[in-house]
Amino acid sequence: MSATKRVSGTFNRILESYLTIYIGLGVIFAVLLSPLVLMLFTAFKTPAETEMWPPTIVPLDVDFEAFADVIFNSKIPIAILNSLVISLSTVAIVVVAATFTAYGLSRYKYRGSRVLTYSLLATRIIPPISLTIPFFAIFAWLGLINQKLTLIILNVYLNYPIVTWLLIDAFNRFPNQLLDSARIDGATRNQTFFYVVLPLTVTAIAAGAIITFLFTWNEFLYALTFTQTEAAMPLTVGIFEFVGDEVVEWTRLCAVGVFASLPSIIFFIFAQRYVVQGLTAGAIKE
Q1: What residue ranges define each of the domains in the chain, with the CATH number in brackets?
Q2: pLDDT tens digit string along 203-242?
Q3: pLDDT tier, 277 (very low <50, low <70, confident <90, very high otherwise)
Q4: What is the C-alpha to C-alpha distance for residues 50 and 43, in angstroms, rounded to an integer?
Q5: For the whole prediction, is pTM greater than 0.90?
Q6: Which residues contact 274 (CB under 8 A, 6 or more apart)?
Q7: Three-class DSSP category at 228
Q8: Contact status, residue 242 vs residue 249, Cβ threshold 8 Å
């Protein structure tokens, strides 16, 4: 029995040691990062090397031709610009609309406000793919097919409820004492909102903006369905320029993948603390 306890104790100490935790996290990180690394390496290969068997991981000869073709001889730069316009416009609309909506639903409750709050969540319970045909019929009737405005509207629909719910929780946790102090000092409702509430909830608002940007930048289903022209096509659809019926241009496809990944990676690196703080705020009650 004592031997069993010693083995069990040793096993528990191994599991609880920082070294074991770091090794486990390192393995998970390596697995998650491996597709991005392989994509980056493939972008620097020659087309002939991508057809070799057994396949190589690190390129034998570094070749920049795929990046040059993507930048100078394809529609990808226009697609990147379209994605930036759609994503940033969606972020601006969603953040402004969700902030005012969430603050109103949090601080000025009325009969039916709870129903409205849950109705926002219900719009995201419906699978977006099931709404593709109704949306297409509506936008075709309005003459808005192949328009960036259509994708902005659709992405606002997808992200507005999520960000509103995120901000409702942030405003619910806002200290009432600060609001009372502002009113005692003579601040109006607008002044209280803009000069007291907003500066102290910027973390949650930034988290909502980042989530909206990432979701919009990577959205594919509606982008593929509602755009067929170069003028409105975002990057998630433009990347298919290098996927043919018989041949896939792997080097150029991976080069575009690098360009498609960079904004999200850079955006998240600089703003990850806002995401973590915004999503975990309120998890522990004082």
Answers
A1: 2-65 (no CATH), 71-280 (1.10.3720.10)
A2: 888 888 888 988 899 888 888 888 888 888 898 888 877 7
A3: low
A4: 10
A5: no
A6: 203, 206, 207, 210
A7: coil
A8: yes
